[in-house]
Amino acid sequence: MQLGPESRTLQSRLALPVGLLVATHVVGVLGYHWLWRDRGGTWMDALFMTFTTVATIGYGEVKPLDDAGRLFTILIAITGIGSLFYTFSVGLDHLTSDSIRQSRRKRRMQQRIDKLERHFVVAGYGRVGREAAHELSQAGGQVVVVDPGQPMARVATEAGFLVLEGDAAEDSVLERAGIRRARGLVVTTANDATNLHVILSARLLNPRLFIASRAVDEASAPKLLRAGANRAISPYAIGGRRLAHLMLSPRVVDFFETAFRRGKQALRIAGLQPSASAARRAVGALVEAGAAGVTVLAVLRGDQVVRSPDPSFALGPDDHLLVLGTDEQIEALERAMSQ
Description:
alpha/beta, Helix Hairpins, Alpha-Beta Plaits, 6-stranded parallel beta sheet, 4-stranded antiparallel beta sheet, 10 strands, 53% helix
């Protein structure tokens, strides 16, 4: 088995104290056996005397010692005890070193990731990925950040996210991130070619995964969609349109900024699908059974969009509702639609 760099470093550091400890025992056994040559001392007597001296157990002299023997015992004690404590200090330093602590943190983090279900994976923790991860986290989602750079991985860890340091384009890294159990993948690296590889790998591992990708070049968006992304957007295009809206309708933008900001009374738009038992029921009846105050913006039926549906509009089994309301209102409506 090939040893890692930490193990090789530990071996080299332990070579001197362990070698000195072994040499002390060898010299001690030979010395005591020679000192007790006329007193019937055995090799086991010599080994026992050496061990108890080095280990500071202090059972006493196995055989009587003269002044020369006691001076020899003092030398064995100083050398043996010193090398023994040196060995312990090297071992403790290794166990508490940064590399070992980091390895333990990674193992604990991997164990936490292995327990996740229906979580989100964010590939790339740059400026765009950071905002996406924080927004998903504030919405109550569990997020796993995957980034190949140690600095970005450290920043994500300090922000409280579960982090894997590695290339998300590799299948093994996505597997460790729990991509087969994930609810969605957000791909936000700064290179469209890398985004393409990540999407291909993730789509093969989880065909049902919802994938949203950043398109650095807006012209790359169709390619990302063909590779398997459900959505591909350009942050620069969105930012440009947002600035234009600020110029044309600043009050409207201010409303959305205020109303949709996270908080107990913040509004959000959600897409809900009724259960089989809730299908064929009227939209108004579902809203009344769920939570008053929820606004049904539209019903999506295949390629058809029914805007502001009448309360008597009957839902189909494959319809999706777009609703506007607070988190509590939407959760209540979702419970009503699942009954």
